[in-house]
Amino acid sequence: MVKPATARALKEWTEATTAEPNLMTAERDRLRARPMDRSRNPRRTGPLAGPLATRRVGTKTLPQWQHELTAAGRIWYCPDKDERIVWVTKVSLSHPKETD
Question: Which of 14, 36, 64, 84 is deepest in the core (most CB within 10 A)?
Fold first, then answer.
C-alpha cells in the first residue's frame, strides 16, 4: 500500500499525477511491489544519508529512501516493512533542493 505521510506529500503526489499520469502510475506500482529493490538501476534508487536517512511517520522512525523519477524529479518515501505501507514524504518533478 502507498500512502502520503503528510498533507503536503498528498498535494505533491496529486500534482505530479496530474502532470505525468503514466509516470506516476508506474511509480505507484513500483512502490507497491518493490520499494527497496535496487537491482534494476542502483544509482536511481537508494536510502538517503545523514540527517535525511530517517523520518518520523506517526509513532515510528523509518528509513527514508529516494527514487529518481526523471533526470530532475524525485520521490522520497519511507517503507514500513512491518505494516507493508510505503509512506510518501515528498514528490518533485524538478530536483528538490530542500533538506527536509
Answer: 64
Closest among 94, 74, 93, 95 to 18, alpha carbons compared: 93
Residue 26, classed as helix, strand or coil, is helix
Give me the CATH number covering residue 27.
3.30.2310
pLDDT for 94 equals 81
What's the domain count of the chain?
1
Instruction: Give the alpha-carbon dihedral of 87, 33, 53, 38, to 10 degrees.
Output: -160
Quick: pLDDT tens for 17-32: 999 999 999 999 999 9
Is the residue at 15 inside a domain? Answer: yes
User: What b/e readout covers 28-67, taking b as 16+ CB neighbours within 10 angstroms?
Assistant: bebbeeebeeeeeeeeebeebeeebeebebeeeebebbbb
Structural domain boundaries, residue 78 = 2-35+48-92
Query: pTM value?
Result: 0.88
| In-domain check, residue 41 | no
